[in-house]
């Protein structure tokens, strides 16, 4: 689950994910909480991972979720 989240001065959105080391996760985004698109598929090296969405600048609303990859 994200522990910190904020918009950068550039308009990018950054958050930190806490999870299990060596676990594969999917970072997904949605405009409406109904349809989801995968943005990244990180494998955590440690217990945290910082994700920056550089495609978020100018987007009025975007939801995020982090799920374990199958």
Can you give me a brief rundown of this structure?
The protein has no helices and 6 strands. With 70 residues, it is mainly beta.
Rg, alpha carbons:
12 Å
Beta strand count: 6
The shape is globular
The biggest sheet, with number of strands, parallel, antiparallel or mixed sense and barrel status, is:
3 strands, antiparallel
Low-confidence stretches: none
Helix proportion: under 10%
Average residue-wise pLDDT? 85
Structural class: mainly beta
Q: Between the first and last Cα atoms, what is the distance in angstroms?
A: 17 Å
Order of secondary-structure elements = EEEEEE
Main-sheet strand order equals 1-2-5
* Number of helical segments with 4 or more residues: 0
Strand fraction band? Answer: over 45%
Fold and architecture overview:
The protein has 70 residues and is mainly beta. It is 0% helix and 49% strand. The chain has no helices and six strands. The protein has a three-stranded antiparallel sheet, with no helix packed on it. It is globular. The two termini are 17 Å apart. The model has no long low-confidence stretch (mean pLDDT 85).
């Amino acid at each position: 689950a994200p522990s910190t989240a904020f918009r950068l001065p550039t308009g990018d959105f950054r958050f930190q994910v806490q999870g299990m080391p060596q676990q594969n996760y999917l970072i997904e985004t949605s405009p409406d909480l109904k349809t989801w698109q995968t943005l990244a598929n990180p494998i955590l090296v440690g217990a945290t991972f910082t994700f920056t969405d550089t495609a978020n600048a100018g987007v009025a609303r975007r939801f995020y979720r982090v799920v374990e990859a199958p």
